[in-house]
Structure prediction request, 94 residues.
Amino acid sequence: MAGTSTIEYALQRLGSAVGLLEGAIDGRFETEHQAQGVEAEMQRLGTDRSRLAQSLDAAEARAARLEEANREVSRRLVAAMESIREILARNGGA
Prediction:
C-alpha cells in the first residue's frame, strides 16, 4: 500500500506541475498577444505621425505662400495709394 500512496503522491505532483506549466504557457501566450497588440498600435501611431507630419508640412508651405501673397498685395496697395495721392495732388485734390 505504501507504493500506491507514493505513486498517487507522484501523480498529484505531476498533475500540479503540468497545471503550473499550462498556466505559464497560457500567461506567455497572453503576454505575446498583448505585445503584438502594442506593436500594432505603435505601427498605427507611426503611420498617423507620418500623415500628420506631411499635413503639417503642407500647411506650413501654404502659410508661407499666403504670407508672401499678403506681402505682395500690401506692397501693391501701398503703391496704388501713392499713385492716387500723386494724381490727386497734381489735380488739386485733397
In short: The radius of gyration is 40 Å.
